[in-house]
Design a protein that fits this description.
- The chain is of the alpha+beta class and 150 residues long.
- It has one domain (5-145): Bifunctional nuclease domain.
- It has 5 helices and 7 strands.
- It has helices spanning 37-47, 57-67, 108-118, 126-131, 136-145; strands at 5-16, 19-25, 30-35, 70-81, 84-94, 99-106, 122-125.
- Strands 3-2-1-7-4-5-6 form a 7-stranded mixed sheet.
- The radius of gyration is 16 Å and the shape is globular.
């Protein structure tokens, strides 16, 4: 797996016309995943460790995982088809009988929210990373102009 994926982080969140732009990448390249405005706000809250009045859906998922001794190992952004990104949520469950690893197909926005909430690593498939457009300069210009890319 180590050669097939690359570690990335959420480098910025910026409101956009049709939603919210998540800038995801590393020192080599940054690419954009567009998500609903609410998901961008939720991910931002998790990144800032901002307290919430009531548990959000991703908080509920965390509680369910905890109740069943499930931990999030990592998330992997795997593919891009017809302008839609795909991702996998990698879970581990340990109990008295065995250790079980489960991969779940999930929206990248949900994967990124869960990874942000639980401070878990985010990866991108190397083949996808090589294919996406580098948006590093755009993010740098946004940061230089003082806009609110978190």
């Amino acid at each position: 797996m180590k050669n097939d994926v690359l570690p990335v982080q959420i480098r910025g969140i910026l409101p956009a016309n049709s939603g919210c732009a998540l800038f995801v990448g590393n020192d080599q390249k940054v690419f954009v995943i567009n998500v609903e405005p609410a998901m961008g706000a939720i991910i931002g809250m998790f990144l800032r460790d901002q307290p919430k009045e009531r548990p959000l859906t991703h908080d509920l998922i965390q509680s369910i995982f905890k109740g069943f001794s499930i931990t999030v190992e990592r998330v992997v952004i795997t593919d891009l088809k017809n302008s839609t990104y795909y991702a996998r949520l990698i879970l581990e469950q340990n109990n008295e009988l065995a250790r079980k690893i489960v991969e779940i197909d999930a929206r990248p926005s949900d994967c990124l929210a869960i990874a942000s909430a639980q401070k878990k690593p985010i990866f991108v498939a190397r083949a996808l990373f090589e294919q996406v457009e580098d948006m590093s300069e755009v993010l740098d210009k946004i940061n230089e102009s003082g806009s609110e890319a978190e």
